[in-house]
Structure formats: C-alpha cells, structure tokens
Design brief:
It is built from 18 helices and nine strands. It has helices at residues 18-25, 32-42, 47-50, 60-68, 87-103, 113-119, 125-140, 154-171, 174-181, 189-199, 218-227, 269-279, 288-294, 302-311, 315-327, 332-357, 361-364, 369-378, and strands at 6-7, 12-13, 28-29, 54-58, 73-79, 107-111, 149-153, 208-214, 237-241. Helix 5 (87-103) links the parallel strand 5 and strand 6. The radius of gyration is 21 Å and the shape is globular. The structure holds tryptophanyl-5'AMP (TYM). Tryptophanyl-5'AMP is lined by residues 9, 76-80, 88-89, 91-92, 110, 112, 115, 198, 211, 213-214, 216-217, 241, 243-244, 253-254. Catalyzes the attachment of tryptophan to tRNA(Trp). It is found in: Cytoplasm.
Amino acid sequence: MAENYSVTPWEVKGKVDYDKLIVQFGTQKITDQLRRDLQSAVGELHPMLRREIFFSHRDFDIILKEWKEGRSFFLYTGRAPSLGMHIGHMIPFVFTAWLQKKFGVNVYIEITDDEKFMRNLEYSLDQTRQWALDNILDIIAAGFDPDKTFIFQDTEYIRNMYPLAIKIAKKLTFSEVKATFGLDVSSNIGIIFYPSLQIVPTMFEKRRCLIPAGIDQDPYWRLQRDIAESLGYYKAAQIHSKFLPPLTGPEGKMSSSVPESAIYLIDDHKTVERKVMKYAFSGGQPTVELQRKLGANLDVDVPYQWLYYFFEEDDQKIKRIAEEYSSGKMLTGEIKQILVEKINSFLDLHRERRERARDMVKDFKYEGRLARAMWEKIHE
Ligand code: TYM
C-alpha cells in the first residue's frame, strides 16, 4: 500500500512513520542495548539519543565494537548551503560535534555549493558560494575542534576529490542513480554525476566512516555501500535522525523555502516571539476551559515537540512540562512562552559563537591541521 508520507533528499511530505521507514530503507533501529553500549563507551548519552531523535543506524554497532577493541573511525556530515540556516539544520551538526568530543575523532564536513546550484534553476553559483561562507560560520558555532575538523566546499576542493569521484562514478550506472533518486532523462547531467561527490568523503580515510545526518540523506549511503568494498574502502556506517517538524504543523520537515515554517538562526527576539505565538501549531484545546478539562495532545503539538527534540535537555523538566500540559494544568500560551525563551537563549549563545567563528574559518578550511594532513596524503 502506498504510504501517505514520503522522504527523499529534497523533500519530506506528510507525517513520517519512522518505524515503517526503517523497514522501507532497510536500516536498523537503535536499540536499548546499543544505547547502553554507547553509554559504556563514552560515559553518557546525548538527549537526542535518549529521546530517540537519533533513532536508526547502519553498522553503528560495528563502530562501537571495533572502538572497544581499539580501532578508531572518522565522522562525516554535510550541508547544501542556503540563504540562512534554520534550527532543524543544526541538529546533525550539534550531534556530530558531541560525538567528536566524546570520541576525539576527525570530522569532515562537505559544503555542496555545486549541488545547490545544479538542483535549483533560480540560484546562481555566486549565490550558493556566498551562502557556503555564511553557513560555515553557523556550522563552526556548533562547537567543532579546529585541529580535528576539515570543512571544504566542493567547488574549491574538487581537484582533490576528482580522482576518487571518477572511480566512484565509473561504478554507478545511470539507471541505478535514476532509480535511487527518482531522476529522469530531463535531469541535468550535473545532478546525475553529483552523488559520486557526496560519496567521496566517505573514503577520505581508510578507516570506517560514521555519518550522522537526517534520514533523508540515506539514498546516497545505499549507493556507497554497494560499491565501497570493490574500491577498497569500508561501507559507510550511519546514524540517522528524525526531522524537526515545521512550526506550522507536525507534518513534513522544517524547510527554508516556507519562511513562516522555520526559525532562522538570524531571527531576533521579537521575530521568534511573533512566529511562535502566531504560527506554532498547537495540540492544546481551543478555549482555556476545554484545555483545563481535556489537556493537550502532545503528539501534534509543535512547541512541545521542539522542546522535546532540541530545546529542553533536562529530562525532569521535559517530563514535568509533558504532565502539566497534557493534563490541562499548563496552557498553550505558557508552553509557547517557555519555547520562546529557550529559542532566544539558544540563539543568543549561537550568535556569540558565530561571531567568534569569523576568525577561525581558515583553520577549519584549507589551512587547518586536518586539511594539511589530507594534502600530504593525497600528494605523497
Ligand atoms: P541539507 O543542506 O539539505 O541538510 C543538511 C543536514 O540537515 C539535515 N536536516 C534536518 N535535520 C533535522 N530536522 C530538519 N528539519 C532538517 N532539515 C535538514 C539533513 O538531513 C542533513 O543532515 N546533500 C546534503 C548535503 C551533504 C550531506 C553530506 C548531508 C553532503 N554530504 C553528508 C549529510 C551528510 C544536503 O542537501 O543537506
């Protein structure tokens, strides 16, 4: 039976059934046992793991097993730059920076200014390259280690990626790529070749690669896993997240192209308050009397979902909010106010870090330690 939702790298529609998606995509659920194994390896669990926001994986169990035996891995994630990142985009970066802190491993971050340009008729290359520079500041602000992180833009780093890219491209047929991404014969040839460029960084080291990302990126990794071993590399491991829902309702994912559905990292206090108060979809009852009597439906309430996903890390506090709001003790206006304050304090801190990041860009890009080590490896 056709599902009433769909998840692709470019679009998420409907209310996603994440358990079904695991079966559909052929990934594995992150089990209690796996969470315990991770906790025993690093001493604690990120709230996004405790709350199953990162809910699915491939080979993460192998990564942990090998780690225990003394074998390391590297992390890889990425971003197709746009005019202004929103809060949902921070999820994989905040989580990847946490993993880096816990394991002390290298992180590679691909900025696909080429992908964004080729996929959208209306964007010029100058624009996507400019957005890349801007988005990199937000990414650095997530808290990466400059000595162990390399951020690169495809249009700048291509010379070093190209030899691997063509080896990958030679292994992929048009019909596989077409079927995996739903392309057709009218697709431009750049976008047909592009998957090889998103696969390249999974082969930057001869160790296992772990990719934290939204589950929408999964089709790339399916192709990678088909061909990696034949090129002498490991199949990439992944840890997948759910999508922060749009402000306007529990379906789909927050998207830059619908401004009222998103909170941008540059939104000021007043804008955040206005958007949350005006647009945040509520699971509360239409009147105070009914809310006191019946309470809110947390499953569809966006302010609650956002606190649960990202903004309220304290388990006791989120539990209390859930109890009070679902029983009617707390009103919609109150939970929205809690969210506004949480978002604004996150954004204040983020903007401070973003300003500090301006002086660090070159250390994360081509003059950093990891970039230089890559250069030596490529040219040895
Ligand atoms: P992009 O720029 O669409 O998205 C960047 C990352 O953000 C995740 N994401 C979300 N996560 C939670 N809630 C949301 N509402 C939300 N919206 C987006 C995405 O899943 C992704 O992890 N082709 C890629 C760029 C890329 C990449 C990679 C991504 C290149 N190499 C390696 C991940 C890993 C893209 O368009 O991402």
